[in-house]
Prior knowledge:
GO terms for molecular function: 4 iron, 4 sulfur cluster binding; metal ion binding. Keywords: 4Fe-4S, Cell membrane, Iron, Iron-sulfur, Membrane, Metal-binding, Repeat, Signal. Helix 5 (113-130) runs parallel beside helix 10 (248-275). This protein has a four-stranded antiparallel β-sheet with strand order 3-7-11-8, sandwiched between helices. Strands 4-6-5 form a three-stranded mixed β-sheet. A hairpin with a 4-residue loop joins strand 5 and strand 6 (221-224). It is of the alpha+beta class. It has 17 helices and 13 strands. The protein has two domains: 9-35, no CATH class; 44-76 and 102-345 and 418-475, no CATH class. The two termini are 36 Å apart. Mean pLDDT is 89; it is low at 1-10 and 19-37.
Amino acid sequence: MVRAHSTLSRRDFMKAIGIATAGIGAAAAIQPKFHDLDELLSSGNIYKNPWFVTEVDEPTVEIDWQKMQRFQKGKYNNFASHLSKEEAAAIQAKTKADYQKNMTQNDVPGFTLRDNAMKLAGWGGVRWRMSQATLVKEMVEGWPLIPTPTVLGVPKWTGTPEEASIMLTQLLRYCGGSSVGFAEINETTKKMIWGQMPQAPNPDIVFEEAPKPTYDATAKKVIVPSSSRYAVVHTIRQSLDASARVGYLSDGGAGTAYDNCDITQWRLMCFLQVLGYTTIRQNIQGNGPIVGWGVMSGLGEQGRMQHLITPEWGPMIRQSTMNIVDIPIAPMKPVDFGSRKFCYTCKKCSDVCPSKALQGETEPSWEITQAYDLVKPELFNNPGLKTWYFNHHKCNRYWQESDTYCGMCQATCVFSKDALSTVHEMVKVTLAKTSLLNSFFIAADKSFGYGLRPEDKTEEWWTTPLPVNGIHYENDVFYR
Length: 480
């Protein structure tokens, strides 16, 4: 067992994080407060980040906007596109035989028939919606059964960008969103919109002068008008307890969170349609790099696992769902709370990754994954970031071999904690102020056994009382 021991005095500890003379209570008291309505409206957001989170002009991940271009997402399979037909078929045949055996014998924790039933229940709604022939048109043009102000015979809603941001944050929180951010789609950030919609039949996404977003099935393109130059981004919390149990239970937790992402953005589209505005929704693969839009809208930092790490729940959110809208909002700045810097020292996610898809190098790099065998990294890595580039093929291959979407990296991250106990909150504060204790915190996290549940505890999920959705909403940092 790893044992964590530190000779650091309490005073040195407090000095390191800059609150030696204030004390914990006084430090918490300096969280920003609003004194009147004008201050509230000028903030653009009534759900402020924890006080130790710093807004910054540039993201903590270095970006070369000259090198970055719109990624041609296209239609390809990160598994089959890098293998011979024979090898892909052999892997799939073995996987099918293995999961049939496991579900018949029901003796492998996490891979029983009822575990798989839970997984498929979580994914059911997402997969059904993705199979609908009219989905792309509705994602772009809205739902015809929802009225517009013209149909209602009333003027469209108007307000300041700050008022719109507050309104949309409140709506998304009510509809299931966990945290909400806003960004502008300009000539620079436009590079973060996919070249094609990753939803069959994969129409091109083009920017043209038009009165509203349109799906042209004949030309096979989605038209984004110049008025649609804002991004509304929200996260959905995912069950840590399910994700920490390797197998179908973890997979089901991911599917349920994806389903909630779909439902929440659907409600946002309906809401804006009634107000007189338009929305281009996304599918589970995003309208652009999901993590990137979370970073640009101030919801978190990009970490080693190439997942968004939020200051509230770490990477235990399914994704930062980005909707393209034409309602003017108040953009938010990127944030820095020390999580990316922590990734330089911590390698828990790459150590636990069963496919070795995550890099273990200390320093990030501008170089994408190197080509090997039949693997073509340019199909899944977009240059222009200084980061720990992710080998999507290795990850996807493991999904195929294990019949799950894994998620071990998420559940293992030091920032993935449900409890809002004083010690966890103080760790976050410390990381935001100094990297002096990073190694100590990594050792402590391992020593206390945080991360994946042991195999013999996996099936206890079925006999342990669960909070709603398997998520401790009572620990919501925005509502206490």
